[in-house]
Amino acid sequence: MALNLALVGKKSLALSHSYTWRDAVLYALGVGARMPTELDYLYEASGPKVIPTFAVVPSFTTLVNVCSQLGANLMMIVHGEQKVIQHRPIPPNGTFQTVAEVTGIYDKGKGALVVVEARTTDEKGEPVFDNVFSIFVRGAGGFGGERGPEALVADVPTDRAPDFSVTERTSAEQAALYRLSGDLNPLHVSASFAKMAGFERPILHGLCTYGYACRAVLHSVCGSDPARFRSFAARFSGTVFPGDELTTQGWQTAPGSYVVRVVTQEGKVVLSNSIAEVAS
Fold first, then answer.
1. Catalytic site residue from 77, 85, 90, 203
2. In 3-126, which ranges are E strands?
3. Residue 135: active-site member
4. What is the CA radius of gyration of the chain?
5. Does 275 qualify as catalytic in the annotation?
6. What is the pLDDT of residues 127-159, one digit of tens each?
7. For the chain: N or C, fewer Cβ within 10 A?
């Protein structure tokens, strides 16, 4: 089935999303926040503070809408890369408007790369955060289109230890908890669906691993202050199963800039080519 290339350059209608502190706390729990060290992210009397990668939640439906309009087999779509750019700390409740645009559909030979940029504003029209979703459609390449920009390359330094390293174990229920923030794909909870997709059992959402990594950056180099978080770009490069152990490592390569990598207990890299930008 041919992809709908006419989507390129078209902006979506504004999508409204309202949330409360309960949604922010549910997201924090979904990406591994724990008591008592992260009470400020889990208790409404503390705000609560909002983990910056919560930005994917109000914008996620825009990505789902694009996927439904692509004309692709949804079983062949994988989330390849993600970037969140935070303009200011996300409030614990509010109503946002998100407008998305497919900025490119690129021919990668064996598949197609679809890049979606989504800008989210508050009720006053002021920007809060942007998302860049990159999805890969397996088997949809070869249509003669442009190859597009080269992928982000952010190799970790091999001559020194990381400047920070945080190890946490996900729970067996992690995917079931994370999906309550909006990604209801049965791949993450249904054994039969996972087998149909080629996995031995349900897998953890890539955006859940992304949230774990954000928390590690937040607490390791931002002093647990979301106002210091600027952006986080990452590539999903491996499969994580609920119950796996995740180690997030970061190397400072410039003032306020860190190359980040996440590995499992087996040493398998599952988040790579990642750069976090923070305020000094």
1. 203
2. 15-19, 77-86, 94-107, 111-121
3. no
4. 18
5. no
6. 999 999 999 988 888 888 888 877 777 889 999
7. C
Q: Which two tokens stand for residue 8?
A: 């390129």
Give the pair of three-digit tokens for residue 188: 């993450």
Q: Label residues 64-84 b or e (16+ Cβ within 10 Å = b).
A: eebbeebebeeeebebbbbbb
* Cis peptide leading into residue 48 (ω within 30°): yes
Residue in 188, 211, 244, 275 annotated catalytic: 188
Cα separation, 18 vs 93, in Å, equals: 8
User: What single-letter DSSP state applies at residue 86?
Assistant: E
Give SS3 for 92.
coil
Active site residue 79: no
The yes-or-no answer on residue 206 being catalytic is yes
Annotated catalytic residue: which of 206, 244, 250, 275? 206
Average pLDDT (171-184) is: 97
- pTM here? 0.95
CA 252 to chain centre: 21
